[in-house]
Amino acid sequence: MTEQNDQFVDRPQASAVRLAFVGVFLPLCWLGMMVVHEGGHVVGAMLTGGRVVKVVLHPLAISRTDVRPNPHPNVVAWCGPIAGVVVPIGLWQATVRLRRRSAYLLRFFAGFCLVANGLYLGVGAFDRVGDAGDLLRSGADLWQLWAFGCVSVVAGFLCWNGQAGQFGFGPQAHDVDPRDMAGVTVALAMLLAAEVLLM
Predict the structure, then answer these.
(1) What is the C-alpha to C-alpha distance for residues 191 and 58, in angstroms, rounded to an integer?
(2) For 90, phi and psi rounded to 5 degrees?
(3) Is residue 177 helix, strand or coil?
(4) Closest Cα partner for 81 from 53, 47, 41?
């Protein structure tokens, strides 16, 4: 009994490291999700003859892309959430195929983007705000937004399923790799600097 309990003793140092890791990685996921989402709007505008006049990407603001003129607002509005889930899934799958040790980070990011984009459209449809409002005003049906939201959120939770141990939580917990801690910290610092200085 003693030997089994020893496996689950939480060392204070390990606990602090994993909390710091999550505290850095979640903001990186949030900012990264907005970059990919707005990138989808930009590409959609370029492909449909729209003109991007402003992209707001700032750590203290909700992102947005202003397109004027916007001959195909429905397409541009859909491109944000669609790219916002397809691109992260593609990045995750690429790391899996390349057998990268850090694939679990891209898996979590993909799940984060699926949940965030799904909730954004599904919940936003009730108040007709953001992309949900744009889509409804340009001819999309309410059921389409709810369907996207439901499928996306469920897929996101499936991506997250079984990942707790990789982040240092639960009975199958692993220690946080210092290389991963350094990598996400540097990535967050670079993204914050780019958004504050360039946007």
Answers:
(1) 10
(2) -60, -40
(3) coil
(4) 41
pTM (predicted TM-score): 0.90
CA–CA separation, 112 vs 134, rounded Å? 23
Q: Two tokens at 73? A: 């607002």
Q: Report CA 32 to chain centroid distance, whole Å.
A: 6
Q: Quick one: residue 49, left, alpha or beta (phi over 0 = left, psi -120 to 50 = alpha)?
A: left
Domain ranges within the chain, ordered by starting residue: 11-198
- Cβ-based neighbours of 179, under 8 Å, separated by 6 or more: none
Q: How far apart are CA 40 and CA 121, in angstroms?
A: 15
Which of 7-21, 22-36, 57-71, 185-199 has the lowest average pLDDT? 7-21
Check if the beta carbon of residue 77 is closer than 8 Å to that of residue 45: no
